[in-house]
Predict the structure.
Amino acid sequence: MTMLFQRMAIAGVGLIGGSLAQAVKERKVVGEVVGVGRNEERLKRAFEAGIIDSYTTRMNDSLGTVDLMVIATPVCMIADLVETMVPFLKEGTVITDVGSVKKEIVEQVEGFIPDTLHFVGGHPIAGTENSGFEHSCSTLFEDRKCILTPVESTNQQALKQVQELWSRVGSNVVCLHCNEHDEILAAVSHLPHMVAYGMVNCLLTIEGFEENIFSFSAGGFKDFTRIAGSDPAMWRDIALMNRDKLLLMIKRFQSYLDELKEAIEQRDSEKLFSEFQKSRTFKQLMK
């Protein structure tokens, strides 16, 4: 299979960026991977670990030889970073990102990007509660969805190249409208993180016990709250950038909790059983 890009740069060599670097090198999708970031010590360590082939801490003409620019930074930085890079990228360079929020990012980038460069919004649905290239893995994207959010002005050749990039690292690529992406992720990713953070913090406020109540938790609690160990800065930015859609999902969840609360108060065993059975059946079908 032919090489897709000769030289790829990744801004943000963390869990996702580091995993993508390993995946494309292992599968010979890209010839060379350049790490871009502000922390030279961490870039040096990623280089020594063989995750990237070279690195730079400067936005300069060294980016002019890049065929593909991947932005894997926190969502609040993506658009500004692309704008900073624009003057240094050669004509025809493809730019994509991995942000968990799409509408605001895509609209901002499409507002300033020149016709000579091609942006394709992207979001691989992969990751763990861990962060940093130390936890990166070349198989992270296998059998996971990767959502691309092209708009009317998206260059079709660039879109095909980004689709193939993610396909060749094992992802199932889906194209969605930015709004649809943000609504879906608010429901199945952003809301669960808010619930997990809220659950842990709520229990931290409980006083009056001599024992550490968390020492009595079983596997279910640990599984449910695992994502509460995710990067707080990253999730703060996601919550604020997808604010409107996330607030709608929180209100929807609060309304359902109120229904359960009422059923418990009214000792409505049929309602409780029905609701719990509905969830159980759904989970069994997902296996």
Observations:
- The chain has two domains: 5-176, 180-286.
- The longest strand covers residues 5-11.
